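Worked problem 6 (solution included).
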Amino acid sequence: MRERRIWRSLGCLCLCAALSISSFGGTGMTAYGASKRTFLVAQAKSMALAGSSDYKKKYNEILLKQIKYRDAVRSAKEKKRNLTTFRWTPLLKFHFPEKLNLAEEMEFVFKPAQIQMEITNLKHELADMKYGILEKVEKSYSDCYVDQEKIRFTEESISSGEEELKKNRYRLSLGQAAQSDIDKMEKSIKTQSSKLSLLKRTFETDKSKLSDLVGMDVTSGYTFKNPFQTADIPRDKLEEITRYTLSMDQSYFEAKAQATLARDNLETAERLMRSQYGGKMNGISPYVTLAKQGKEVDTAAFQMAYDDMLDLVDRPWQGKKRILFIKIPREWFKGQISGIRYVEDEPYALFNACLDYITAYKECSDIEKEIRSEVAGSFEAIVTAKTAYEDLVENGQEQRAALDKLLVLNKQGRAEFDAVSDKRSDYQDTQMDMLGALKDYNDLLYAYDRLTCGAITSYLKGQDLSMDASGAGDSLVAVDEEDYPYYYIKFRIQDMKFVFGVHIPEDFEPEITDYELWYGDLQIGGRTPVEKQISHLAVAAKSEESRFTVWLFRDGTFVEQCEIDPEVLRDRLNMKTAVEKKKETEKVAGSYQVVLNSELGLATITLYLNQGEGLRYYGLMDQNGNPLYSEEPVESGEGFTYLSVLAQDLKKVRLVFYDEGKEKAGEGYLNTAKKQVMMEIKE
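Solution. The predicted structure is:
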């Protein structure tokens, strides 16, 4: 009997440890305490996120920024339209179209772009916070589950031991057992009882920690379901996981954005100075080239060459020029002949830009190397942990086979009880080690999922980890969907690319399935489904006659071409072929018939309501809302008799519809021309 109970317990642990599932929070073995409610790991994660004040605060920040972005886009569009169109009112003078100055252009273009950058940054912070919360909850839940299973196993082991001890005490009284065996059993039970007390204290502590994380008391009345999994992550997926991590990691995102801005600043400074001084910059060109490649330069030698360039620039203006017997410093003529020097206020602007970019490039490269190293190292740790767990599973199977063999020999009197007891103890320890190894392996998976910014969760769910810029959707675009076709543009400062997309409402006519973006005769990207976006580097400006256009298609058939303004970040697509759908204000809800009795001057009116509309009863009112027949609703198909004068003026009759429970479902009227019951549709 004792052996059967031990086998049942060990079998449960085997099943628990060997069980593998394909996604986080999967199914598992039945938790003990069937009368209690089961608290799932998926519930724990959802509640932890919902209850986190920091997470909600960050989420609300994003919502506010999205509202600011929407307002900035709309404001820029209206301000630009105001300034560039003719305006007049009887109280004001004429305002003719104005040419936008640099400050106005920068406000219209860069303010929305700046808010986009802030939204992107906040969303990276939110994602990092989310994965941190999930990792804590998953590990805490696993601790509770392991405690629960260890307690159950230990309690069953103690119960079996006490039953065996009782039998052996009886056998001792008959002289069929040794006192030493009794002593060993009592010592084993005492040891396991102490272990059980410790496990229960640990269980209570771990449940309290989980309760704090999820914001609900789970210390009593709940059991925990097996959250463990094994994940087969091929090594050839490592590079894809790494790229996904780089695209989502907050620290790398910030470093890459800084490096991109520093590079842009360097190229701008070089372009401005070269346009002003041309060949005089040849002496510093090798250093600038090295800097643009992110390579280290000899700072001292670079500064000497830079000083020589500045001297060469200033040389024509040294000395004095005699005009009408008055000596005037030559420097006064610099602005007239060669324009205001870019380096006049900050002579080392290009020098500093080079050093800034080298520093930013190195920091970005170092962070990328660190992430790649961590992703690769953690992957190897997971592989090692999985191998250790699988070795324990194999070892457990071998020990069980050996124990089965020893039990048979014991029944035959060919093996001592001590040998069976030791072998059983080893097997039990292996099962507990197996459960611990599976927990350690899953803890590494949880940590790896956070490190890779959710790549493991996405992979186990079968989602594509490819970060193709033209992939479906972009959760960072803060636009509210309208019921008309429009385009939107956003700017990704971290890689100096723009993202272009279109929104086509559902059931829009004509149907649009794909689009293309063109600048003059240059196509940008390829033909793209409407649910996806185009990501591309900014294109070089062409002639003023060149225009940006969007070509719309339906399953490969050209539908229409729409011109867009690239300086307006979101605007309507003016489609000439668009079919404007009229909103329905009424619908047919049934039919009616009128039977006249000329002798009595009465009319019997019967309404037949459509069952599919959920209508069962109706009432009749005059134009002032007063009941004509009865205050009680009349059932569909049931006729009522009224003065025949009513039948001659049914156009003025108002109807009230009721559902099965005689709750008001709407109002309507009778279409006398078609003998139809009409129901009004209200928004």
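Discussion: The chain has 14 helices and 20 strands.
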